[in-house]
Amino acid sequence: MTNHGITYTGLDALLTPENSVLLLIDHQGAQFAGMGSTDTNLVVNNVTALAKGAKLFDVPTVLTTVVEDRGGRIIRQLQEVFPEQTPIDRTTINTWEDQRVVDAVAATGRRDLVIAGLWTDICLAWPAIHALADGYRVFAVTDASGATTTEAHERGIQRMIQAGVIPTCAGTVISEWQRDWAREETVPGITDIMLQHGGSFGTSLAWELQLLGLDKG
Hints:
Layout lengths: L19 E6 L3 H5 L6 H17 L4 E6 L1 H4 L4 H6 L6 E3 L8 H9 L4 E6 L2 H14 L3 E5 L8 H14 L2 E3 L1 H9 L8 H11 L1 H13 L6
Parallel strand pairs: 1-2, 1-4, 2-3, 4-5, 5-6
Helix pairs in contact: 2-8, 2-9, 6-7, 9-10
InterPro entries: Hydrolase_YcaC-like, Isochorismatase-like_dom, Isochorismatase-like_sf
Keywords: Hydrolase
Organism: Streptomyces fimbriatus
């Protein structure tokens, strides 16, 4: 495992919008059709929240598909967050072996690489491990990813952790980007994300806003 001086503890271990770049891999119809590790709706919900968080905090985002003609387009929920972006369509199973993707990430100048993808053990794990060797600090968003089976999902996560990838969840990433509620300019946006995608927390938040007289619905 190559460390490259990566920090895993202290304040510098947390993500910031200024240092992050998001890579979303193969959230396509064919990939979802073969996913059996978790509920499809949960992954769609979480990866959409993650994408909206990236847009809110101006985190550069790279979208990619594999053999789109057969595997299908990227799901509409993601494309609608970034309507101006055409996903990079690859033939390589390992996203990090497509130089266009590597160059797109490198062009951002960011060194904290946040990745989610289908499937966890292949399309997420391989580029995550590969990017570590290029000096990136890599975060794998496991609840915005999935695999053919629970076994494959878990083994993919274990393999990444053994290599030095940092596992995390979509809500955790967004919270790290926010970090301080005194950063008021992004509070309305993050509130909307939580209301739409936060599950039981979102419904509780809606109730709280109603009780405070802040619910405009």
